RNA sequence: GCCCUGGUGGUGUAGCCCGGCCUAGCAUCAGCGGCUGUCGCCCGCUGGACGCGGGUUCAAAUCCCGCCCAGGGCGCCA
């Protein structure tokens, strides 16, 4: 539809403030709520960046405009032309007193949830019409925060001379073994959706020294938990002439930077979601795998040295350690083939996981930069070095020491918002049973 | 792959264990009416539900079996 020229927006909701009092404006947006009080009507109009209260007085405007306005339902997309009034009783001390109305769209039906409801339908029901669910201010706030987190991460890394790269998501073989990949047909060959940009970013660190990628990764494990998805956003960082201690320091600084930025720029969203950041003080605690192992043993939790901690074990650790903390120096056997064993003890690796309570947010470490050692480690892990030839051949031409990390963006959002279901912090989550929307 | 829990109007729930007093309660919502400073408004009236199939019983929302769907846990998992 062509938008009539007199119904072009003059101001966004957030631009309307008491100093504009008396000016005539056109605001466009979607109705969140309509409340009528006799001859007075209050409408909360939401646009892309906030909301503004619109009022209509029966005795000040033509009756057909007033009558139309009061019968409008939430989810109607409208334009309102009116005068800005600075009024203390209005939210933010300002409102638009309507003179004219333009209706772009009215809903044929109402969604199964209310815009400000205290009780919500199950997430499953809401996901069926996710874009409508996102009209709820609280739902939107999550993704405005996520956007700001992404912006902050980019700013932080770029300020430190990292460059952003993009690597293939269609790959020929298992990146690191272990995880189940999604197979697909690539012309007449078998291919897979990438589980990680790991090997590509390592190669690129030999060129640009500092690289990062923010993009989707895919896992075909049949998870059915509130913290796993089949498709997630991974923040991958790799840097040359660095080891795992440098990476941990970088990650810690980055999270601190991200949180400071949120406090600075997203106070409304944080308030709406009741986020406090009480458990986000740097420096983050660092405990070694062996220390964690002994703590768990003393608690009577079943642990076997060399293995990843079980869900139960992580829960116990999370009870002891609130907020962010590192678990460092993992047994080499528990880590992927490219993680560097310690020079003085090859049983232990230069590696870390960043935890938030019992939730694993990130893992990383120093990487092996010798081809021979990589081949040895591949064999130890039961992987066929021939399948990795496209990667290993690069090492013949020299490779600086390097280290890096992978961070699950959605997991970070769970930690930041305190939301316990990863689907809630993902616009269109993919899991075992959900391929739409 | 295995185990556990749940499914009641559009939505969220009570009732189920211990069958009858359920003509299924409450809140929200929707429809109609009233209200000129609301902001999760308020007031009055009206409306709407036991996941699907089978069984037991004089009687099933309630007990049993199967199926479907959802949630959670284990295993597994940068």
Question: Could you give the topology of this structure?
Answer:
Blueprint lengths: L23 E14 L2 E8 L2 E8 L5 H9 L5 E10 L7 E12 L17 H6 L1 H4 L3 H23 L3 E2 L5 E2 L11 E4 L2 E5 L4 H8 L4 E9 L12 E10 L3 H22 L1 H6 L12 E4 H10 L12 H10 L3 E5 L22 E6 L2 E8 L4 H10 L8 H7 L6 E7 H9 L20
Parallel strand pairs: 3-5, 6-10, 12-13
Antiparallel strand pairs: 1-2, 1-4, 2-3, 4-5, 7-9, 8-9, 10-11, 11-16, 13-14, 14-15, 15-16
The chain binds one RNA strand of 78 nucleotides through strand 1, strand 2, strand 3, helix 2 and strand 15.
* Element string (H = helix, E = strand): EEEHEEHHHEEEEHEEHHEHHEEEHHEH
Rounded mean pLDDT is 92
Principal-axes shape call? elongated
Evaluate the radius of gyration.
27 Å
Low-pLDDT stretches are: none
**Strand arrangement across the biggest beta sheet:** 6-10-11-16-15-14-13-12
| SS class | alpha+beta
Please report the number of helical segments: 12
**DSSP strand count:** 16
Cα(first) to Cα(last) distance is 26 Å
- Range of helix content: 25-40%
Q: Strand-residue fraction?
A: 25-35%
- Major β-sheet, in short? 8 strands, mixed
Protein traits:
RNA-binding, elongated, 12 helices, 5-stranded mixed beta barrel, 437 residues, 8-stranded mixed sheet, alpha+beta
Task: Give an overview in words.
This protein is α+β, with helices and mostly antiparallel strands. The protein contains 12 helices and 16 strands. The strands form 3 sheets. Strands 6-10-11-16-15-14-13-12 form an 8-stranded mixed beta sheet, with helices on both faces. Strands 1-2-3-5-4 form a 5-stranded mixed barrel. β14 and β15 form a beta hairpin. α4 packs across α6 (244-265) and α4 crosses α12 (409-417).
């Amino acid at each position: 539809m062509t938008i009539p020229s007199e119904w072009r927006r003059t101001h966004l909701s957030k631009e309307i403030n008491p100093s504009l009092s008396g000016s005539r404006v056109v605001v466009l947006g979607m109705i969140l709520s309509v409340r009528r009080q006799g001859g007075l009507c209050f409408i909360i109009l939401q646009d892309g960046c906030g909301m503004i209260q619109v009022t209509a007085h029966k005795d000040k405007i033509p009756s057909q405009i007033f009558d139309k306005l009061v019968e409008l339902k939430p989810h109607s997309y409208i334009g309102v032309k009116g005068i800005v009034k600075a009024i203390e009783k209005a939210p933010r001390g300002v409102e638009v007193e309507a003179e004219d109305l333009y209706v772009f769209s009215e809903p044929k039906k109402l969604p199964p949830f209310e815009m400000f409801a205290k009780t919500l339908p199950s997430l499953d029901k809401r996901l069926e019409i996710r874009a409508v669910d996102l009209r709820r201010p609280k739902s939107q706030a999550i993704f405005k925060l996520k956007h700001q987190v992404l912006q902050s991460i980019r700013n932080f890394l770029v300020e430190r001379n990292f460059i952003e790269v993009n690597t293939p998501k269609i790959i020929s073989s298992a990146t690191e073994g272990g995880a189940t990949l999604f197979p697909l047909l690539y012309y007449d060959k078998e291919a897979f959706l990438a589980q990680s940009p790991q090997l590509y970013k390592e190669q690129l660190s030999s060129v640009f020294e500092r690289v990062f990628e923010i993009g989707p990764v895919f896992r075909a494990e049949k998870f059915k938990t509130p913290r796993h998805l089949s498709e997630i956003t991974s923040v991958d960082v790799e840097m040359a002439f660095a080891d795992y201690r440098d990476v941990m320091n970088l990650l810690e600084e980055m999270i601190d930077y991200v949180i400071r930025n949120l406090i600075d720029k997203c106070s409304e969203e944080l308030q709406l979601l009741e986020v406090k950041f009480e458990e986000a003080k740097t420096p983050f605690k660092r405990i070694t795998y062996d220390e964690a192992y002994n703590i768990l043993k003393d608690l009577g939790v079943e642990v076997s040295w060399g293995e990843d901690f079980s869900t139960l074990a992580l829960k116990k650790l999370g009870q002891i350690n609130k907020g962010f903390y590192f678990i460092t120096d993992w047994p080499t056997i528990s880590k992927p083939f490219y993680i560097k064993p310690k020079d003085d003890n090859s049983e232990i690796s230069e590696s870390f996981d960043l935890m938030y309570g019992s939730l694993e947010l990130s893992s990383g470490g120093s990487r092996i930069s010798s081809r021979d050692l990589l081949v040895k480690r591949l064999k130890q892990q039961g992987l066929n070095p021939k399948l990795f030839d496209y990667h290993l051949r690069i090492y013949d031409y020299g490779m600086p020491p390097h280290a890096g990390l992978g961070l699950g963006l959605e997991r970070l959002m769970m930690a930041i918002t305190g939301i316990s279901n990863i689907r809630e912090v993902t616009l269109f989550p993919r899991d075992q049973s959900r391929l739409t929307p």
